[in-house]
Amino acid sequence: MVAKRELKFIKSLHQKKHRSLNGLFLAEGVKVVETLIDSGWHPRHLYSTSSMDRFPTAEPISEKELKSVSTLMKPNQVLAVFEIPPARPPEYAGWVLALDRLRDPGNLGTIIRLCDWFGIREILCSPDSVDCYNPKVVMASMGSLARVHIHYLPLGPALSQSGLPVFGADMQGVSVASFSFPDQGILLMGSESHGISPDLGSNLEQSLNIKPYTNPGAESLNVGAATGILLYELRRQQPFIQK
Fold first, then answer.
1. Sheet with 78-83, edge to edge strand ranges
2. What's the rounded Cα separation, in Å, for the pair 10 and 122?
């Protein structure tokens, strides 16, 4: 059995204030925890409902105990507590993604995975964006959190002082299909409901639009989907680097 005090502490990490206070966050599920460990992150605590060769040091936890502290409707065998990495300044080289007032955890987790896939290593988030160590973000990122650096900072000064051209997604922008991306820059994506903040507009060298294939009257694209399309177009124009 896991001590009640320990279970209470694990559950407290559902909240941002306790994650920030303790410098710790939760990761759940065999695949997510395994990927974070394989990426070099070492868990402070590791729990499993059954013995697994891949997690030989895991402490036993009952299914009932795991369910009491899990953020999932159906807990997935393994839960780990990791340390939040120390903050470092962003690196303004190559392509950087900036997110203005992103609030949905699933969207941020998806975008982190997209950045990992397309080789974007730096994400700038406005301070009022969702916490990247929110359990739902961690789950949606599927371990990519370990390979993408995420920074929370005022975007206005960051964009103006970066030395990179800034391009933003906007319904009134030029079609991305006819746009030639430079070798480096910052791609700015706005919030799910309101788009890019008006005060950040002065930083844009060009706004970009994803034209619909037809005109069915559909709602605008989800920010995760839009980010994926723009990153694909950006990378499509650049030589593939075999690693």
1. 24-28, 78-83, 45-48, 59-60
2. 29
